[in-house]
Amino acid sequence: MTNKTYAKVFRFRGGELCLDFANTIQWPRSKRIEMLETPGRLAEWAGLAGIAQTETAGLTERDVTRAVQLRDEVITFFTFLHGGQPIPDSLLTAFTSSINAARSRQHLRQHSSGFEWQSNTGGTLDMILDRVALSMAHVITGDQLACVKACAMCDWLFLDTSRNHSRRWCSMDSCGVHVKMRSYNERRRG
Ligand SMILES: [Zn+2]
Question: How close is the Cα of 71 to the center of ligand 1, in Å?
Answer without folding.
Answer: 18
